[in-house]
Prior knowledge:
chromophore, five-stranded parallel β-sheet, 46% helix, 4 domains, 29 helices, alpha/beta, binds flavin-adenine dinucleotide
Amino acid sequence: MSHVKRDKKESTSKQESGNDVSGTDAGKGKKRAPSPDEGGAAGDRGKRHKAAYEVHQKIAHAVNAARVDREPPLDKLLAAQEKIWGGESVVYWMRMEDVRVKDNRALALASEFAQQNSLPLIVLFVLVPGDYKAHDRSARSIDFRLRNLRNIKVKLQEKNIPLHVITHAGNRFRLPEKIIDEILPSMKATHIFANMEYEVDELRRDIEVLEYGAKQNVRAMFVHDRLAVPPGTFKTGQGKPYGVFSPWQRKWQAFLEAHEEHLFEAADPEGNEDGLRSHTIYGKLFDGEVPECLEGFECRDRDLMKVVWPEGNEVAVQVLNRFLYCSARKADLGLVDPRTMGQEMSIDLESDDDVQLIEDEPTKSKAKLSLKGKMASPTRLRDYASSRNSADSNTSSRLSPYLASGVISIRTILNKVKKLLGNKLESGRDSGPGTWVMECAWRDFYNHVTAAFPRVSMGRPFQEKFAEVQWEVDEEKFNAWKEGRTGYPIVDAAMKQCALMGWMHNRPRMICASFLVKDLMIDWHLGEQYFMQQFMDGDLAANNGGWQWTASTGTDPQPAFRIFNPTSQSETASPDGAYIRYWVPELASLSDKAVHNPYEKLSPKEFAKLNYPAPIVDHAKARKRALARYKNPGYHGEGSD
Ligand SMILES: Cc1cc2nc3c(=O)[nH]c(=O)nc-3n(C[C@H](O)[C@H](O)[C@H](O)COP(=O)(O)OP(=O)(O)OC[C@H]3O[C@@H](n4cnc5c(N)ncnc54)[C@H](O)[C@@H]3O)c2cc1C
């Protein structure tokens, strides 16, 4: 039907006749077809003349036709394509969040395009210190990227694909020009592929690459890769983006059930031909090194970080496997390799084909799952619903640094869990796997929020009404918080973990954030920045989302009343005190009761012996102050009873 319509439209267009009526032979009057009115006799003859007239309208003038003949449109189209599709290589631009070869969509697309056009594939990474400074990236996370890039370089070399790493130390906003005017021409490339980044600066940069590139005959293509479900995929009934997690999460779950293709993994890149290594331009790219260190981002505890956060996609898969198949262990709560086996390891982790996690005795509070076939013992995944809030052992996956830098894809992770669950990806609080998948959904959610509400990457509160909340300026207390000297053991333990490990378990993150904002009444932006500067997994969307949620300026639907009591929270985060004893050795000898609140539980004499600070704030008073200030943004008082 549509085809018929299209024919009709085309047959009446001027382009089809080559020109307007005056351009046709009929128009010239040589063999002019009579107009319909000139038909003479009525009836058939009149109709024939009308038809002849119409048909002659479509006949091009000989001169025009000859001109078109000289430049056949097909050749023109191909030449135009050639102009854009030209170039002698194809570039995949790897960025800060997709540092991997496996299941990388832009890389796979670039490779496919290179193969189709018989062009070599080049992988480019541009280090931009100005960006990292502006975004408070930690030296640890930069060093982690560099380590992973070295690992990737070796892998790509095996496929004759060069990894070209350069540093753009100039103005970060001039990166698009640098790429289009210098880097791509130096590689004779007119095609560049990359995965999308959803933060405002990065999106603006990519728009510029796209628009400026088009003017310079460079075609840029950006694709979704970072998340299981791309931002903007679904909206509320009113057509707005979601700002609350629970209804969004139900949509997310349903969407993935209906569109399993979103979890399909991308193909590995095809290798280049051997001859590329001796090519005059591309051969040299194989010799370039990934820098050992980036100026301004020297990682002081690099040796320790290498142990605690080893690099590589294979490592990330092992870390995932430990979480899926091993039990938690107290000894593994801190500065250890995340690939530790756990207590009840009895399975060949790398060949998990016939392992299936099945639901045994589901209960609302703690779903019991067992591994069918090879093993029926507790695993961190199985117990996640009940243990995830405890930091007394390695209850969570410790995958965040690998996910934040894209060393492993979210698809690989979710597919592994899906397989364990008999090819069904459940999410929800009823089981360990369901709860964990829900945590992974939070990662998607905060990225959706970042993309839909760009102001959150611009320092603004998600809920503008809290922009005027009045903060205390107290450097001494802020430093006490950073250094773990607040006199609240759980806060101090967590802040020491942050400083020494570059990472923190989720529950202590929330407790520390709440303490800074609600107990000390210090601006959440300062905490957000400090975490970014310390963490290995620093990620704008998750960090900003976590801070705003805890500071009650974010997506929490019941924000005003949520003020964490650091002592009762301590009992949740460290039920038997192991976490506190590990990170605050001054308190190692205390009883399970005293360890959460030694100032209250011990006599002044006993407390003095500990060499541990007294609480820097009275929580009860601080709570009232916070409630008063949130209730009346702009109010700078202390609150009353
Ligand atoms: C104040 C604050 C700041 C935070 N900053 C970051 C950050 O910079 N980078 C970061 O990756 N996470 C951040 N989080 C979220 C969360 O604390 C970490 O993702 C989690 O502790 C990482 O440990 P894991 O990998 O063992 O997590 P698991 O419990 O094993 O969860 C699996 C994965 O799900 C994702 N995830 C889990 N919880 C969340 C969450 N609440 N928000 C977003 N993603 C989540 C992470 O990618 C995580 O690796 C922050 C939370 C708070 C409260």
